[in-house]
């Protein structure tokens, strides 16, 4: 548990054999950078596996810290995350003073990627005694010319304020000024996330100031904007009117993730038919175009929930929903058919039956195992439609009768039941059968 508290990552490699500290120290002292890199990787993995290698800290400071190799620099910061920073008495180890000096130098380094590595380390650090002397250097990186440095500087400030507010009591104000003048989407998004979690009132003020520009922002910040909108409206429902128009404007975005979140937000903000219809259309678009089956299943669950609350709206869009049958996944097909059977009505039955007839004809080709299961589902769906709307029996009986000798027992028995029911109920169709 102690290791989990002081380290934010896990690596497991059972092929790494235990080594003596003296052997590892020899590897750190080697002149060859490749040997140093291999030794550092081994030390990190052994430490994560529970080995006590704190005695090597001074060797790392002596032979790795002065090295300019970028790979070694990354490994050094990973090592510093994992290493124990306090002695048995609970006080910070004296060696950490040297580490603080190294980090300060890296925070002022001319290379932006070295600065970024140091800032990323600071965004994970939970030691107040290490963070405190670095606060001033951390602030200056907010004004760096390179966006990579600025976005990581925001994360470093966020972590410092969240863990030790007294070190940077004015952090929300600083970030509030930063976000107004920032142009990089990732840096702006990081700043907005910090404001949402540390000073929601300031985040809301910023959001309202750019409410008409949200559609032109990057999708990563749009998602956080939508999250804040939902959060604010849950806390104060009277705020909904301020945001509905902005959410409608985001609905036409090219990002699937934003479109999905917009649909969810619209439904939570308003029960008006226009809002629900727009949300359903967005879900249907994702159902037809998205390649991930897991996303499609989630969308179908959302549509099923909406069907319980707004069935009339979904009934008008049943033909958009039924396009989900184009998916090759049998679970998605089943969910689509179940939903369509709930929504079908006299106005749409003819169109639905036409689609089901086309689908059942398609099952005569393709993977036998998959098509027989799908055919059984289609036969059952058509049978259900005939029970609800008897007038369509004549239009489907000739299609289904071709499958009366189907190799799939379920399909064949369903067709037999259907034909028997038609013969008994509609004497005029007996001759056709």
Summarize the structure.
This protein is an all-alpha fold and 433 residues long.
Report on the architecture of this protein.
With 433 residues, the chain is mostly helical. The protein is 68% helix and 0% strand. It has 25 helices and no strands. Helix 3 runs parallel beside helix 5, helix 12 packs parallel to helix 14 and helix 14 runs parallel beside helix 16 (256-269). The longest helix has 21 residues, at 368-388. The radius of gyration is 31 Å and the shape is elongated. The mean pLDDT is 86.
Radius of gyration: 31 Å
Shape descriptor: elongated
Quote the distance from N terminus to C terminus.
73 Å
Q: What fraction of the residues are assigned to beta strands by DSSP?
A: under 5%
Q: How many separate helices?
A: 25
Count of individual beta strands = 0
Structural class: mainly alpha
Work out the helicity level.
55-70%
Main beta sheet: none
How are helices and strands ordered from N to C? HHHHHHHHHHHHHHHHHHHHHHHHH
In round numbers, the mean pLDDT is: 86
Q: List the uncertain runs.
A: none
Topology of this structure?
Layout: H1 2-6, H2 21-29, H3 33-48, H4 57-63, H5 70-82, H6 95-107, H7 112-122, H8 128-131, H9 135-140, H10 147-163, H11 171-181, H12 185-198, H13 200-209, H14 219-235, H15 240-250, H16 256-269, H17 273-289, H18 293-309, H19 311-315, H20 318-321, H21 330-343, H22 349-362, H23 368-388, H24 393-400, H25 409-425
Helix pairs in contact: 2-3, 3-5, 5-7, 6-7, 7-10, 10-12, 11-12, 12-13, 12-14, 14-15, 14-16, 15-16, 16-17, 17-18, 18-21, 21-23, 22-23, 23-25
């Amino acid at each position: 548990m102690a290791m989990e508290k002081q380290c934010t990552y896990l690596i497991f490699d059972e092929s790494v054999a235990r080594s003596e500290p003296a052997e590892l120290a020899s590897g750190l002292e080697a002149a060859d950078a490749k040997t140093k890199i291999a030794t550092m990787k081994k030390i990190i993995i052994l430490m994560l596996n529970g080995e006590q290698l704190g005695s090597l800290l001074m060797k790392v400071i002596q032979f790795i810290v002065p090295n300019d190799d970028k790979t070694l620099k990354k490994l050094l910061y990973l090592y510093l995350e994992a290493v124990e920073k306090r002695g048995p008495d609970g006080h910070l180890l004296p060696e950490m003073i040297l580490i603080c000096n190294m980090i300060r130098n890296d925070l002022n380094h001319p290379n932006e990627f070295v600065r970024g590595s140091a800032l990323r380390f600071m965004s994970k650090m939970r030691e107040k005694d290490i963070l405190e002397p670095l606060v001033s250097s951390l602030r200056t990186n907010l004004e760096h010319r390179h966006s990579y440095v600025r976005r990581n500087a925001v994360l470093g400030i966020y972590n410092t304020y969240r863990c030790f507010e007294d070190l940077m009591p004015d952090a929300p104000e600083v970030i509030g000024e930063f976000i107004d003048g920032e142009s990089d989407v990732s840096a702006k998004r990081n700043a907005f996330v910090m404001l949402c979690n540390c000073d929601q009132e300031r985040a809301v003020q910023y959001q309202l100031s750019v409410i008409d520009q949200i559609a032109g922002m990057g999708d990563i910040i749009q998602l956080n904007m939508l999250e804040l909108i939902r959060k604010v409206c849950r806390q104060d429902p009277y705020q909904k009117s301020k945001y509905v128009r902005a959410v409608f404007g985001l609905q036409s975005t090219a990002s699937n993730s934003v479109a999905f979140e917009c649909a969810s937000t619209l439904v939570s903000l308003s029960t008006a038919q226009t809002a629900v219809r727009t949300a359903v259309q967005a879900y249907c678009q994702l159902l037809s175009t998205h390649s991930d089956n897991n996303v499609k299943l989630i969308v179908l669950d959302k549509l099923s929930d909406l069907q319980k609350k707004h069935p009339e709206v979904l009934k008008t869009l049943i033909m958009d929903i039924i396009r989900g049958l184009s998916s090759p996944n049998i679970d998605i097909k089943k969910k689509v058919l179940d939903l369509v059977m709930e929504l079908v009505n006299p106005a749409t039955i003819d169109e639905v039956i036409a689609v089901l007839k086309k689908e059942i004809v398609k099952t005569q080709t393709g993977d036998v195992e998959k098509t027989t299961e799908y055919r059984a589902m289609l036969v059952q769906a058509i049978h259900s439609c005939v029970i609800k709307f008897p007038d369509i029996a004549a239009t489907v009986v000739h299609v289904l009768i071709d499958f009366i000798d189907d190799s799939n027992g379920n399909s064949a028995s369903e067709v037999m039941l259907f034909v028997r029911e038609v013969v008994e109920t509609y004497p005029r169709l007996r001759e056709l059968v």
